[in-house]
Backbone:
């Protein structure tokens, strides 16, 4: 099972909005509404930001939102803040044979 | 609240077996709502799912690692463990244990802090 495809990097200025894409196939992203997104600051463990495509865990800012169209999922961060600068990973359920597949990660830089 | 903590050697020689344990505190590993997973991250690279175990002992492994991986659970100690055999330098990574929500909803809602394992002679 190949990794999901994410852009290597994105950037934005404080207050702006950015979107990170996550492209899979009809066997993973396209077949299941089970896409999740994780934020990882340097030297820290990943943190769940979005699950089931668009749901936010308790405590996660509503500036973070998720969506999906076909084989591509997206994470949008609005009102960018300096603390949002981190790596972001998407993840999808991919069926019973290989249940988990991650994206390669996207480095977000807040200018 | 529930916490996960990885433990094990930080240095393993090439061709040997890497062994790590994850201790679950503040909750029971026997909850049927979760899978208990191992995920790794080579230095400067992305996340790679290794596999998971259900409290009953059912396991699922990444096909790319399946021939070298064994994940086991000890419900009496509230722990689950990873063994990765015949390691090479490519297995050098931070290894995380994580809790994955099971059944209809699949996501990793709880992670350990991670432990760096270096493969070197």
Residues:
């Amino acid at each position: 099972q190949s990794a999901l495809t994410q852009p290597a990097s994105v950037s934005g200025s404080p207050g702006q909005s950015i979107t990170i894409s996550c492209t899979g196939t009809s066997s993973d992203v396209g077949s299941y509404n089970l896409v999740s997104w994780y934020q990882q600051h340097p030297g820290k463990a990943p943190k769940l930001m979005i699950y089931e495509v668009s749901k936010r865990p308790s405590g996660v800012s509503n500036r973070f939102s998720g969506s999906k169209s076909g084989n591509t999922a997206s994470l949008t961060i609005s009102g960018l803040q300096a603390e949002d600068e981190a790596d972001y990973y998407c993840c999808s359920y991919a069926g019973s044979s290989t249940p988990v597949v991650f994206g390669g990660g996207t480095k977000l830089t807040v200018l | 609240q529930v916490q996960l903590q990885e433990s094990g050697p930080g240095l393993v020689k090439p061709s040997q077996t890497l062994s790590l344990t994850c201790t679950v505190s503040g909750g029971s590993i026997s909850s049927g709502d979760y899978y208990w997973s191992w995920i790794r991250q080579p230095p400067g690279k992305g996340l790679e799912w290794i596999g998971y175990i259900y409290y009953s002992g059912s396991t699922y492994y990444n096909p790319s690692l399946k021939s070298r991986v064994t994940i086991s659970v000890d419900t009496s100690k509230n722990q689950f463990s990873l063994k990765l055999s015949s390691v090479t330098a490519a297995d050098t990574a931070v290894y995380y244990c994580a809790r994955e929500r099971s059944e209809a909803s699949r996501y990793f809602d709880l992670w350990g802090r991670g432990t760096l394992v270096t493969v070197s002679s």
About this structure: DSSP finds no helices and eleven strands in chain B. The longest strand of chain B covers residues 93-101. Chain B touches chain A at residues 37, 46-49, 52, 60, 62-63, 96, 100-101, 105-109, 111-114 (CB under 8 Å). The two ends of chain B are 39 Å apart (CA to CA).
